[in-house]
Amino acid sequence: GPVLCVAMNPSGEQCYSGGLDSMIVVWNIPNSDIDPYDAYDANVLYKVLEGHTDAVWRLAICGQKLLSCSADGTVRLWDPNINNSLQSTVNTNLEEGIPTSIDWLAQETNHFVVSYDRLKSVIYDVETSKVLLRLENDIQFPDSTYRINRVISHPSQSLIITAHDDRKIRFFDSSTGKMVHSMVAHLDAVTSLAIDPQQTCLLSGSHDRSIRLWNLDSKNCIQEVTAHQKKDDESVHDVAFHYSKPYLASVGADSIAKIYA
């Protein structure tokens, strides 16, 4: 079935893909000199992680630990390099809703954050799978426009950033759960977020067709690029920074991937 998400191992030796078929596949990255028209090498497929019962739409990697969230309502923790890869499962009874996004907390690598379709974000402990903290909504009775499309953790600060359907980006203190800043960032739903390796800029993508670069300290917009055309009322689906080179990228509903210097 269609591939919905991909995550790269920090070593660059393996990558993980999740899809509509509910499976997570672990791939060995072939040598870059390989001829793409060569016969298929079965060694590229390392392992298939089975456990989810519906589409897998987000993956997050931290060292040897892999997080996945699925339309089946669960968030699962895996160690792909051992026989019994599935380590734990949270939200098995759908008590929080359906997860929409996940990320590891860089400051506390034994913690991870999950956003749910019931308009809330929750921090969990890896060892116990227990809820540690809930992020406080700034709206007492949020409606569907508050929907959280992406949640990311700052690499070196106690900061969690969320992207919402109501055109806003919100910033939370991950140690207290309190919101520290909120801003209208786009003209349509904010779909994606990424922080540059130097940790000075935030990149956001939106269904308003644009990607915008923000100064993380001042929260001012540094640059805006009209990146993608709309299709079925959708536009930018994801954004990313290169780990070591001065590149950023965006992908959109117009079936185009763009790389920017």
TrEMBL record:
Sequence ranges of the WD repeats: 1-29, 49-88, 183-224
Gene3D superfamilies, per database record: YVTN repeat-like/Quinoprotein amine dehydrogenase
UniProt superkingdom: Eukaryota
Keywords: Repeat, WD repeat
InterPro entries, per database record: WD40/YVTN_repeat-like_dom_sf, WD40_PAC1, WD40_repeat_CS, WD40_repeat_dom_sf, WD40_rpt, WD_repeat_striatin
PANTHER family: CONNECTOR OF KINASE TO AP-1, ISOFORM E, STRIATIN
Identification of the protein by name: Striatin
Source organism per UniProt: Didymodactylos carnosus
